[in-house]
Design goal:
Layout lengths: L1 E5 L2 E3 L5 E2 L4 E5 L2 E3 L3 E2 L10 E4 L4 E2 L2 E7 L14 E5 L5 E3 L2 E3 L5 E4 L2 E6 L2 E3 L4 E14 L2 E3 L3 E9 L2 E3 L2 E3 L4 E9 L2 E3 L2 E3 L3 E6 L5 E3 L9 E6 L6 E3 L8 E6 L5 E8 L3 E6 L5 E7 L3 E6 L5 E2 L5 E7 L3 E8 L6 E2 L4 E3 L2 H6 L3 E11 L4 E10 L13 H25 L5
Parallel strand pairs: 1-4, 2-5, 3-6, 4-7, 5-8, 9-10, 10-13, 11-14, 12-15, 13-16, 14-16, 15-17, 16-18, 16-19, 17-20, 18-21, 19-22, 20-23, 21-24, 22-25, 24-26, 25-27, 26-28, 27-29, 28-30, 29-31, 33-39
Antiparallel strand pairs: 8-9, 32-34, 34-37, 35-36, 35-38, 38-39
């Protein structure tokens, strides 16, 4: 099947062009706030692609390379999108892909690196890799994509030291990968932090994986013999989830504040040795956000849910030091309040349990001192006005009497 997409202008859509088939021509298309998309490129002998940099994405050239090696940074100058098929020993670095549908696609590639690149606001994956081996992705910033990194079928890859945040579905999603190392990444505020499907012999270590709406790390669909170690996995719904996945080693991870720490379903022979805990939960009943206070310091009331609570305190932005208090109802220290400037003031309450887990919650209040009426020292202004008025009345009466006595009668 021959398909040609030529001389189009396509703007403000989720995907400008989706292509599949055996003979594809895509040339001289202008794409704005969207880009080219394919689930993967084919290296079958009967398949041909004619896609060149006459296509632009957000005013920048789209680069498509096939059967190339030793591509360098100069081969991707000011790239709008990058598609590589059957390429090797190539370097992609220091680029930006924002609102382009899909940032980078590698299919059937080997020994390539992607580094120091920003990829954000794309409705599909920031980086998508298929059937590729020995790929390194490092020091990239991937945010607000559907998936930060999607990897279909690969071996011996490295994903390290990236910031992967606020991606709608998953930070990192691997399907049928083996011997991939994932370490040193910050993977936060998505739905799934790291998701494995049918992945064996991989290592997930020394990552920070926090505040994901579903799971921090999820191993499903026969993901066996993986190592998950020395990660910080906090404040997710489920810290680590395993389904139909066996013989995994899950050790030396810190899992705090997750609704459920580790969940297994239809699994056998998984090894677990981790620090699981639930941070104290603080609810601030008063004061309310943006509540206004004058010269008198705010009162407060909080509730704390914790097992074996040992201590609680608050800190005030602009004041060095923690203020411990004996009861959950009280007042902010008046002397500290007196020294604070007017405006927004951040108050953060903390609570600690016997396992040294610390929870916190904050409120912003407003300090606003009412303006004072001007006064003369030692006198009440209104009293002075009254006295002056009486004196004026007496003077007027005397003046009138004087005029009567000295008036000339005609």
């Amino acid at each position: 099947m021959y398909n040609s997409i030529i001389n189009n202008t396509i703007v403000n859509c989720e995907v400008a062009i989706i292509f599949s088939g055996t003979h594809i021509t895509v040339t001289n298309n202008k794409m704005e706030n969207c880009g080219l998309y394919s689930i993967g490129l084919s290296n079958d002998p009967g398949t041909s692609y004619i896609i060149d940099n006459s296509n632009t994405v957000n005013g920048k050239p789209l680069y498509f390379y096939e059967d190339k090696s030793n591509l360098e940074v100069a081969n991707f100058t000011n790239a709008g999108q990058i598609f590589l098929l059957n390429c090797s020993d190539s370097v992609i670095s220091n680029l930006n892909f924002i609102n382009v549908t899909l940032g980078i696609l590698l299919s059937y590639c080997n020994n390539c690196s992607i580094s120091e690149t920003t990829i954000s606001d794309n409705p599909y994956s920031g980086i998508r890799l298929t059937h590729s081996n020995n790929i390194s992705i490092s020091e990239c910033w991937l945010s607000k994509n559907n998936k930060g990194i999607m990897f279909l079928e690969g071996n011996d890859n490295i994903i390290s030291n990236n910031d992967i945040t606020h991606n709608a579905y998953a930070g990192i999603h691997l399907y049928n990968n083996k011997k991939t190392k994932i370490y040193g990444n910050n993977i936060n505020n998505g739905r799934e932090g790291i998701l494995f499907e049918d992945c064996d012999l991989n290592i997930i270590s020394n990552n920070t994986i926090n505040n994901n709406g579903n799971t921090g790390v999820s191993l499903t669909s026969l993901s066996n013999d993986n190592i998950i170690s020395n990660n910080t996995i906090n404040y997710n719904d489920i810290g680590i989830y395993l389904k139909q996945s066996d013989d995994n080693s899950i050790i030396n991870n810190v899992l705090l504040g997750n609704i459920q720490c580790i969940v297994e379903y239809q699994c056998t022979n998984n090894i677990q040795d981790n620090q699981c805990g639930f941070c104290p939960i603080i609810t601030i009943l008063s004061p309310k956000n943006d509540e206004v206070f004058g010269e008198e310091a705010p009162t407060f009331e909080i509730e704390i849910i914790a097992v074996n609570l040992t201590d609680y305190w608050y800190r005030i932005e602009g004041y060095v030091g923690a203020i411990h208090f004996p009861n959950l109802v009280g007042s902010i220290d008046q002397l500290i309040w007196d020294d604070l400037p007017e405006g927004e003031i951040l108050i953060t309450f903390y609570a600690k349990d016997i396992s040294e887990n610390i929870g916190n919650n904050s409120v912003i209040v407003i300090k606003r001192i009412p303006s004072q009426q001007p006064q003369i020292p030692g006198y009440n202004v209104f009293m002075l006005i009254g006295v002056n008025s009486l004196v004026l009345i007496v003077i007027i009466k005397k003046w009138k009497n004087f005029q009567k006595k000295n008036s000339v009668k005609i």
